[in-house]
Fold each of these.
Amino acid sequence: MIKLKGSIKISGDKSISHRALIFASLSTGKVKISNLLESDDVMRTLNILQELGIKIIKKNEKWIVYGNGTGGYIQPTQVLDCGNSGTSARLMMGAVASNPISCTFIGDDSLSKRSMSRLSIFLEKMGAEIKLTKKDFLPLHIKGDINLIPLEHVMQKASAQVKSAIILSALNLRGKTRIIEKRNTRDHTERLMSYLKIKFKKKILSKSSTSIELNGPYEIKPRDMIVASDPSSAAFFIVGALIIPESRITLKNIALNKSRIAFIDVLKKMGGKIRVKKNKTVSGENVGDINVTHSSLKSITIKASLSPYLIDEYPILSIAASQAKGVTVMRGLSELRHKESDRIRSIITNLSKIGYKVFSKKDDISIKGSNKIKLINQKKIKTYGDHRIAMSFVILSLIFKNKLIIDDESCISISYPDFKKHLKKLSTN
């Protein structure tokens, strides 16, 4: 059996890469971005910004963005194609909403089935004109307005993308915008704003609730940015090393944002031998090295309150659960139905096909782990075009000596083009 050994530097973080490009475009001058993730999703945001009049070039492995200020987007001459990227669609909707331009956003078949009304209701209350397909989906048309009304927004549903989109719309507004999160979400946007010296007030309202207050309009001074390496991408190799005997790996310069590494605490509770060492801070994010050694995992129950912090990691956590002793229960996964695929269905269908006992009740998943399953014939894994499902089952296939055939590995380039290259570097017989 292949084992994972050695050390690598993971590609740049996807969430931070999108935000670095957008904030650079809203600054008042030249910004260099290092370690930008050059995935399909991030390139969609980059291309959309170019369509909106932002000059972006690559020079010596760095991306250089010439910002036009918070009200500086110009009328695009064609539709803005988000491909598979929900982050591109939602964040750019927010960014253009307070510019006096009209834009049409489109996406691929998968993205065109994902809800946009959960964001559009906030932007419409402020005064943006938005026309959605079937009142919820792409293609959508948005007519921005420099005179949007700054309001208080109460977010009942947890979504870092919706929160970030409202923040981006507020940067060009005159007056106070207040966002209340009933359930806290990832805070990359706030960290980047602190690094860029954009003044805002953040208040802790309760253990799980926060308010953010902005008082615009803002002039964002240009400042070079470094994108930390992606913890969600690291998660695939971390689980791989935990479940494959004799594995031991080190992953370098990983973003250690608390809202992004909750999966490490989950894996440690399952018995995973993982050591995290913080090294430094880059562009507002703590980064460090993660050491992982093969471990005997045990089942646990993952509470629903953790779901906003594990949304991208549930697929690979389900692979860890498949190798853990006992029944692992993941609660409150409703948001998984609105990702690149219905991930609840994707996880259950594929694990069941291999022979694992997997159950779903409403928005919970139960997985009975087993290391006794042997495959005589190859099994075809259906990714549903979902990059995280594809990578998760590539990792599981290592245990089955590559008897799992992934129907579409091309979708991996959406978030991690170097995944197979990095896997090959860590793999030894």
Note: DSSP finds 13 helices and 23 strands in the chain.
Amino acid sequence: MNPNVFKWTDIAVVHAIRLGAILLIALLLNRLLRVLTRRLLPVAGGEGLGRIARMREQHVRTLAGLLYSAGTAVILIGAVLTALPEFGFTVTPIAAAAGLASLAVGFGAQHMVRDFINGFFIIVEDQYIVGESVRVGTVVGRVEHLTLRRTVIRDIQGAVVTIPNGEIAQVANLSRDWGQVFVDVAVASQGSPDQALAALERVSAELRNDAAWSPVLVDGPRVLGIETFSPAGATLRLQLRTVPGRQDDAARELRRRIQNRFEQDRIAWGGVQRVEIVGSEKLQGLSAGSGS
């Protein structure tokens, strides 16, 4: 038999073995990556967990999916570059061409690259996750969808707002730890501020001791005192901290109780009295009539 046949057969067998080894290693690495990313996820389901625990679980799931996708892409590219020499291709020119192509694409898609980079840091740094309420610029609402490229928010009017992650320079997370609101109460200048402050203290204590509202409260209501005063009256301020998202509800309940308490204690509300000045002729006529 022709010795060249044995030579080409040996070469083919060697290349096949190398390609098989590359494929096997790539599959093993992908399998290992899947196992590692799954180990990041909690074992139990999120039905029995608290709100904060469910938020953390959602963040971990998003991060695990991101790591698996990025790792799979790296393994695939590495396997292809390693296998190319087995088919007679030189990797160096291809890598150089790929570098130039990526550079050109980078210049042509700068905004998209910025979106992906900013989205990566948003997810990794746990700035916000799906389900949380945030304020991005002038948009305030609930995060409905989050990817590396964009953030989708349902605002308070119900509109779906899509924001590229590269345009998010500053974000306020309204769902972490606690929410805070200040309640201002105006009292008339004829009344006593001390009486109004005492009434506010009683209302605050009643709200804190209410079993229906105490789980919502984190701190307060706390009467801070007189915020401003003028000839028309004084403005008293209360501070209220609640679990995230419930500060407005608690503030409405607090205002209702304050109004009822002020009516019971006959404490006058503040306000500007309306004074109308009529013409001088009428004033003179009235004064003359009163003198006669």
Note: Confidence is low (pLDDT under 50) at residues 44-48, 271-292.
